[in-house]
């Protein structure tokens, strides 16, 4: 039997020109199809455009498995150019271990920070590589490396990569123009570190087959080969696979892993799949899967967490670039939280409960957000109470095809790429997709997100002990009928019920079942006496008279909640 190969995907991320490609080249022994800036447009620009792949094989360390075997590191060279962050996010979902490459003469740069953010979302382990140490003068080299190492340790302190290995190398001493005979410095030490960081990634062959294709080309007399990494499930010779973007299904004719024919491949493997009668131009990159296992959705509910480095609030109704699965589209967001009573309740992961009520939020609640009125009510000592979990409704400008429960990242990619800010705003998990184009009518009414409404008016005058006339609660044109029967409270403490309109100008009658208190009656009679003086002999003074009202008018407050997606706009009082 062939020796077993354990494949670990290592993402090589970093700022542009930190030397990622040179490092991948120095590390690798077997080049894969997409490796090393092969694309003509990439060579012309001198930067890595697509996810390049190459691999390095070494003996399997005993702790990772008995018997002979090889440990294969597939190096996923992620582009570092700011406008290509979409590609990185695409690659991050298949990465087991991250290598963050830093130019030792420059330290952390904007994109290194963004890579760090993506790493924290998508990956468990990291190695930091300080590259280009050949540029440091020999006498000061050691102290400069130590200084930068300390600086990096400080940067990583508050991330999940705190304490990760930091290795100094020169992938290509003398730079790109130097002769090939120059040997890289520190690369064999780096390989040892990578081996020490390798782990058995949890791979699961069950579930639907899903593969991220990054290259597609034809081979004369064979057919079309799609190469990529299997994100979930497994695939065998003769299986049918669907290309959902094109709604086409094809049969797997042959498969290869690093130039070796195979009959089976599973999650985490990098594989080339050959099909017939398919034009490679139709699919440069994208997803292929078990037929009908992906959803094409117009909107989604996601769990959401803000990215700490993003400056500014995350506002409802704002537009973001949303990366879902392997697509990036524009989308609009609406944030919502648990009802205030449930803020501290533990929320089950990766499920969304449609039975519960949720509170609409104008923005994602974070330590620095302006706490809204409703949340102030549960405030103690001015501390903003933050819920354990928050969600967002995403509405896409065009439909996206993705697996259920996939990673979602929201970014502001239109921010100036030279501005020194993190453009990744939030991340989450897709909990529920909406496949129906008319989801506004068919689906959203099931989502019980409410707003609390608070209206205030004033008592105009007393009719008798059990009823008063109110004003300024409604506009003239409001149909008061829909408010009949709702409960109100007077500032003097009485409870009342709206009984109906009174006249044409938006006034209304309130019934006070327990009767007015004597004090209230006094207050109101004094007020209306003043009014009748002012109003004598001039019918139009009504509006002015309210100004010289008693110092303390009696106010009426009406509180109710209304569900945002309720087509009937019903008002509900608890």
Describe the overall structure.
- The chain is an alpha+beta fold.
- It folds into four domains: 4-197, P-loop containing nucleotide triphosphate hydrolases (Rossmann fold); 210-289, Elongation Factor Tu (Ef-tu), domain 3, CATH 2.40.30; 295-366 and 387-447, Translation factors (Elongation Factor Tu (Ef-tu), domain 3); 451-529 and 551-572, Thrombin, subunit H (Beta Barrel).
- The protein is built from ten helices and 30 strands.
- The chain has helices at residues 20-27, 40-45, 85-92, 110-122, 138-156, 187-197, 373-376, 439-442, 518-535, 542-545, and strands spanning 4-14, 30-31, 52-59, 69-77, 97-103, 125-131, 166-168, 210-219, 223-232, 234-236, 240-243, 248-251, 254-257, 260-262, 264-266, 270-275, 286-289, 295-306, 319-324, 327-338, 358-361, 390-402, 407-411, 424-434, 449-464, 467-471, 487-490, 495-502, 507-511, 555-563.
Helix content: 10-25%
CATH superfamily caption of the largest domain: P-loop containing nucleotide triphosphate hydrolases
Query: Which architecture name of the largest domain does CATH use?
Result: 3-Layer(aba) Sandwich
Strand % is 35-45%
Contiguous uncertain segments of 5+ residues: 29-51, 80-84, 371-381, 538-550
Q: What is the gyration radius calculated from CA atoms?
A: 32 Å
Largest beta sheet, briefly? Answer: 13 strands, mixed
Specify the structural class: alpha+beta
Mean pLDDT over the full residue set: 81
The CATH class of the largest domain is Alpha Beta
Task: Return the domain count.
Answer: 4
What is the CATH T-level topology of the largest domain? Rossmann fold
Can you count the helices?
10
What separation lies between the terminal Cα atoms?
A: 70 Å
Number of beta-strand segments: 30
Structural shape:
elongated
